[in-house]
């Protein structure tokens, strides 16, 4: 009798785990929650990608509505979104890059070849700021208000549809000064 009960043990465990699997499979991976929404962007002190002697910090991103885009040369999806970032920058959208766990020389070359949409890029070689942001990987894009409060976060490629459906209205509200989100 004991041997028979042992046969059903894996089935019982599977049945107990099934509701958790069902909940996880029903989620959109692009809609990952962020504890930073409506919270200040984390303070940091990292070097500029272009000028290793220049230290960047929170004061460099305050005072203007902007996007902070997490990118890297090793990130294929970052190549896919780069065109729209260049387009947005040409339309006056302020974008700061966060070069994540990358090689400085490769990143500089990449921006030279593909165009540089960033006002500046923060070089986060070890991923310390990425860790503070809760970065899952690249690309990720954050919308900050003029006080550097995180108002929206996107994990994954920022394309035209994402810009139109997730960012544009929020961005326009923040730029116009009506910051009720």
Give a short overview.
The protein has five helices and seven strands. The protein is an alpha/beta fold. The longest helix has 24 residues, at 2-25.
What does it look like?
This protein is an alpha/beta fold and 181 residues long. It has one domain: Glutaredoxin (3-Layer(aba) Sandwich), CATH 3.40.30.10. The protein is built from 5 helices and 7 strands; from the N terminus they run αβββαβαβαββα. The strands form 2 sheets. The protein has a 5-stranded mixed sheet. The longest helix is centred in the first third of the chain and has 24 residues, at 2-25. The mean pLDDT is 89.
| Poorly predicted parts | none
What is the succession of H and E elements? HEEEHEHEHEEH
The CATH class turns out to be Alpha Beta
Distance between the termini: 62 Å
The dominant shape is globular
Number of strands: 7
Order of strands side by side in the largest beta sheet?
A: 5-4-3-6-7
Query: Radius of gyration over alpha carbons?
Result: 20 Å
Helix content: 40-55%
- List the domain count as a whole number: 1
Total of DSSP H or I helical runs spanning 4+ residues = 5
Mean pLDDT: 89
Please report which band the strand proportion falls in: under 5%, 5-15%, 15-25%, 25-35%, 35-45% or over 45%. Answer: 15-25%
CATH topology: Glutaredoxin
Describe the sheet with the most strands: 5 strands, mixed
């Amino acid at each position: 009798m004991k041997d028979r009960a042992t046969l059903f043990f894996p089935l019982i465990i599977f049945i107990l785990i099934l509701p958790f699997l069902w909940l996880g499979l029903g989620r959109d991976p692009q809609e990952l929650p962020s504890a930073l929404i409506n919270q200040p962007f984390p303070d940091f002190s990292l070097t500029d990608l272009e000028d290793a002697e220049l230290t960047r910090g929170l004061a460099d991103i305050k005072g203007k509505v902007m996007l902070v885009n997490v990118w890297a040369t090793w990130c294929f999806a970052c190549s896919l979104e780069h065109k729209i970032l260049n387009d947005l920058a040409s339309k006056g959208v302020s974008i700061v890059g966060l070069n994540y766990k990358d090689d400085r020389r490769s990143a500089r070359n990449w921006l030279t070849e593909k165009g540089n949409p960033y006002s500046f890029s923060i070089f986060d070689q070890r991923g310390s700021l990425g860790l503070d942001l809760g970065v899952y990987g690249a690309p990720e894009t954050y919308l900050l208000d003029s006080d550097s409060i995180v108002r929206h976060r996107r994990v994954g490629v920022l394309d035209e549809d994402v810009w139109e459906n997730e960012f544009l209205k929020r961005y326009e509200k923040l730029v116009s000064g009506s910051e009720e989100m």
